[in-house]
Amino acid sequence: MHLTIDPGTKAMGWALWDENKMTLCGLARGKTWTSAVTAMPKLKVDKLIIEDQQIYRTSRIDAHSLLAVARVVGAAVAYYDFCPHLLVKPREWKGQLTKEICNQRTLARLTEEERSLISAALCPPSLKHNVLDAIGIGLWAIRKRRWC
Asked: In the chain, N or C: fewer CB atoms in 10 Å?
């Protein structure tokens, strides 16, 4: 089993995969970055696949916020006992598509059973994109190429 994670300082999307099938997904939330990490389900996984952070020259995102998320990535790897992991940059798994288009394509590639797992996760609509990004990372990992 492998776990895919979209890291965040207060909300982290995650998805659990068995072979090529998503078996569970959810959102871990906390008031701080450390509580967000420890809100992740403590699962025994063979591999972690986590979105890494990258500062792009043309980006308007504050570099300090990306550094905070980078701390989360390291803490998540430690939380899962330093199991084998892969850090994947956003451009690798989704290219430069908008979040809306990428989320639509993610949903379109899931089975009805997998889509029902998203509803069962009880994620607020405003944070659903975090779960969809974790699922998108998982779909990328299955195919090993950008697909969004």
From this structure: N
